[in-house]
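Ligand: fe (ii) ion. Inputs:
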Amino acid sequence: MAKTMNLPEEDETIAEIIAILHDIGRFEQWKKNRSYVDTERIQHAYLGAQMLQKGWIRYFIPETREYDEIIIKAVKLHRELHLPHELTERERFFCNLIRDADRIDIFYQCTRNKDFDILFEIKEEVEERSLSNAVKLALLKNESITFKEVRNRLDLIGLRISLLSQFTFKSGIDYIKEKGYVEKMINLFENNLPQFKGEDLEWLKKYASKAFQSKN
Ligand SMILES: [Fe+2]
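Predicted complex:
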């Protein structure tokens, strides 16, 4: 994404470093919890920011401390539902960039059969095979959906599709469109879980194609 934006070389490098480091907290999370599921207490983005703050950033960037704050903030905030108001314009830019890139990555992961069962795993799934009201309502209002609202695996597709309306940069959404990630994700879902085919899944397909159009 950074490469499509004609950024100064310095900014491109910052974006690259943030991208490489943004999930560094996963190591600590696994050590503490033997799980990659974020909890109230153990959240990988915060853990990553802490690790960098405690000294890892010096290991990766020995030459200067000039960019520490911006890098650490972007790592810390990459999974927040909403960014805090007090960011500078520059901080906000890099936060939004990694957040969009991460959204692309989520779509990419959802197109691969290899991890399908993990990505579409729900502990206690309800019997209903329709989209939950809360999920549908959030989609209609272009609001973000959290895992708390997810009751079945169709809701999970809804949650992922809701990410389309959260992109900041057009280049992010264009990339997803160009790669056909949404179609691939839905095809894979239909093949693996045909019991969810029906009105609501068709509605989600239409919703996704409209979301692409509205970003043009
Ligand atoms: Fe992450």
